[in-house]
Amino acid sequence: MSETQRDVLSACFTLAIIIFAAFVTQRFFLPLVWAGILCIATWPLFAWALRVCGGRAIAAALIATAISALIFVAPLAIGIAEAAHQAPALAALVANANNSGLAAPAWLARVPMAGPAIFDWWSSTLGQPHGLSHLLQDGSVGRLHTASEVLRSFGATLLHRMIDVAFAFLALFFFYKDGPALVRQLDAIGSHCVGRARWQLYATKVPTAIRATVNGLVLVGLAEGVLLGIVYQVAGMPSAVLWAAATGVLAIIPFGAPLAFLCVAGLLAANGATGAAIGVTVAGVVVLFIADHFVRPTIIGNATKLPFLAVLLGILGGVETLGLIGLFIGPVVMTLFVTLWHEEKLFGPGVRPAQM
């Protein structure tokens, strides 16, 4: 057997092992990616815990994992706890809306410009029996005829997601504990494949992009939820905490917060609190404008050296193609692409930095 044939067989053997490993662990791939993103984003927290614990990696990993869970899971847990109090009423509302239809509010037809069109769409879809099940194309809502069925379906989905979250934080603990060794192994593999100089050029961009994206999306989104939650409470909105949690989650996606605060304004207007509805709308627009046009581009763009359009394309394109996790992967991809663009401009096609 020639040396070339042996190299080909060796490459096929390596590829087969990687494919089978990916096949075996595919169910846990998404939680592992979430754990990796959290680990990179909160690595300074682990470094601080490591100094506090005198270099004891296990204790530092436990502390960093607990703090990370408190920061990222606590707001979600508050929202779920508040939703649990409202669950029977919400479940009955969903079942009744699906079975009998949900009539469009009369005031919607009087809204200038788009109001009549929205009123007609609402009447022809949500206003019809089982219109909600037709709107949700998978048809799962069509089988939910009672509140107990709604709660059972929601509970099963929630349990599935909670298992993923628990596994992600378990993996996060081991990523903290074994992080330095893992980084050394990745550096060795990357340097072997593309050369040390080029690998270092790209590898340093990924942590910066992930931390900037987490700060610009998650933390700013949660801040929007807190601020608008205060506005909801002042406006007299029932279940203001639940709506604040929903706003914070939706605000992670750029331009997602209007779905929440406009719903709140609509419910307030439907209950006759027109002034409060206007106040919520104005406050929501102001907070959203400042966050999406000044705070987020500054946090993400300044750290990653990306223009605003590249940041926006990375975020929205990532969500469109990869779902929620694309919020964080998209900006990383755009950062690597812009790095490649500048590298090509600097060195010219076919020319690379000196290999080490």
Order of helices and strands, N to C? Answer: HHHHHHHHHHHHHH
N-end to C-end Cα span: 32 Å
Low-confidence stretches: 138-147
Radius of gyration, whole Å: 25 Å
Q: Sum up the overall morphology in one term.
A: elongated
User: Strand tally, please?
Assistant: 0
Average residue pLDDT = 78
In words, what does this structure look like?
This protein has helices spanning 3-24, 29-41, 43-52, 57-100, 115-124, 131-135, 147-194, 196-203, 205-235, 240-251, 257-270, 274-304, 308-322, 326-347. It starts with a helix and ends in a 9-residue tail after the last helix. The model is unreliable at 138-147 (pLDDT under 50). It is elongated and about 80 Å long. Helices cover 80% and strands 0% of the residues. It contains 14 helices and no strands. The chain has two domains: 26-193, no CATH class; 195-356. By secondary structure, it is mainly alpha-helical.
Considering the chains and any ligands shown, give keywords for the structure.
single chain, 356 residues, mainly alpha, 2 domains
Brief write-up:
The protein has helices spanning 3-24, 29-41, 43-52, 57-100, 115-124, 131-135, 147-194, 196-203, 205-235, 240-251, 257-270, 274-304, 308-322, 326-347. The chain has 356 residues and is mainly α. It has two domains: 26-193, no CATH class; 195-356.
